[in-house]
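Translate sequence into structure tokens.
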Amino acid sequence: MRRIDLPESARALCEGLLGKNCVCAVCGADVFEREEHFCARCRAAFPYNAGFVCSKCGRAVGDDYPVCTECKTDLPAYERAKSAYRYEGEAVRLIRAFKTGARYLAEALAADMAPLLAAFPDAQLLLPVPMTKRAVRRRGYNQAVLLARELGGRSGLPVAETMLLKTRETGVQKTLSRRERAENLQGSFRVHERALCRGKAIVVVDDVMTTGATANACARALYGAGAGKVYLLTAASVPLRPTGGGQNAEKR
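Result follows.
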């Protein structure tokens, strides 16, 4: 499925005439149903995170394992995680576009993430994974903040945009192993608003969960400041692939 990207001026005109969601977020085909972000063909083919998933990290697994082998070996710091998509196929392209200028995709992604909040019935706050000020200036925005704002509007949950801070740059992580990612992120998050954090059930929001290192670092900082529970909600997560009879996280 190839996306037809509309210029922002054409998109604005289209939205003014037909409503906000007038074209498919994946292929650009006309969509006339209100509150629908994908055409029927793309919706049917999209890599939703359905089927067998780990009850702890929420990533797709190849068989009916209640908890994946990685979580059994190295228990995550957060309570549990959910993601709307498997990070493959069109989900990869869509999220990469979202991170490189297509801010409008926050609404489409959050629409599929929002129903998963039901898995965290005691949630009290949404917390986007922070970026350093330098990283935000470089990109122009924090994509996790855009997702959290959309989710807050749909759920009524408040968004704590400044409660957690990222205190230093951690560099590109895509080439690092699971252990190297964790070491790279160690001590990089700090709770700024401890009173707001104390005793709360917090849903950390991000675009992609790969190994869970970022979520673990955030959760440890939040628990250290007195958080009651920490959950994770992402647009997508990298599936766990069976390799040599076991399960290993695919790196990106």
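Note: The mean pLDDT is 86.
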